[in-house]
Amino acid sequence: MYIFLLVLMVGTGVAFQGWRTLLNNFAVDVAGLDGLGMGIANSIREVPGFLAMLAIYVILIIREHRLAALSVIITGVGVGLTGLFPSLTGIICTTLLMSFGFHYFETMNQSLTLQYFNHTEAPLVMGRLRSIGALTNITVGGFIYFLAKTLGYTEMFALFGAVAVCAGLWGMTRDPSREDLPLQHKKMVLKKKYWLFYALTLMSGARRQIFVAFAVFLLVEKFDYSIQQITILFVCNNVINYFANPLIGKAVNRFGERAVLSVEYSTLILVFLGYAYTDSPLLAGAFYVVDNVVFNFSMGIKTFYQKIADSKDIASGMAVGFTINHIAAVFIPVMGGIAWITNYRAVFLGAVVMSLVSLILTQLIPDQLRKIRATG
Questions:
Q1: Nearest Cα to Cα of residue 23 among 161, 207, 139
Q2: Keywords assigned by UniProt (predicted)?
Q3: Fewest beta carbons less than 10 Å away: which of 166, 238, 248, 287?
């Protein structure tokens, strides 16, 4: 299962990182989108994440590992078609296709990881997979840096999408499943005892959308970052993440979820204040790197759920979690786009408030773990 998830994650990572690196410059330089257009596109991109709960019903007819491989193929097709449609409508349609594949793969990836690896192994596996993902992103960044001089957007999008399609086709020929694991509930499971996981997931999704939709856009629009500069920034992020992710996994085991998540949200408060008020391109880029690194601390939310969840609730919990994560994601980018037109600082100050709420909720984790253990 580890090798299976690793190959699919690399395929998805190539396509998604290529898409993410190229999209803002493609949208501004070729499609002519403004902040509102990007906000609309990013909101629609999150609709498949909001519908991730439907994965529970899809696995009634297709096994989880098959759905994971199929999702990677769909991701690749969506990315590969992006460069052919340089307009708001075109970006929306191709992004929607890519996003269905990406979000359904991530749902299955998290579900299978928590099912196949125990409480101690899961953080380490997540850290290792994210580390390999960072190495993949570095490689993609290197290719883009040099390919951008000779290839156009259309060719680059097609190339990166094709890698994901090939990885997904490989996955369709494999069966890494085991029959000795608890049979997963194939229905929606919502339980009161999981309320803190739901709340942390909701807030994480809300503040993450500010980063995804507007952090790079700030660098491109306000500070005139070129595609090569964005690529260099992504490579820096991923070099750090390659070494940091395994350490984060170990930190979750050693210090616990509350400590790790508290560091994340305390740091993010400072980062978003920095986005709002800095006039330095270098500082803005540094904030982006820090933001990207501490995002990986969010694995603590998933390992917290693993510790409090019934073993048969893992698949449903990951699907429900993805849906909750994307409730705010559907409307926050549009609201942020409208706010951006008036004053871009308001977007990032809103993220400061979200991070503060998350920090407060995180302090409740030990009490929740004690209550779950006390009730068996």
A1: 161
A2: Membrane, Transmembrane, Transmembrane helix
A3: 166
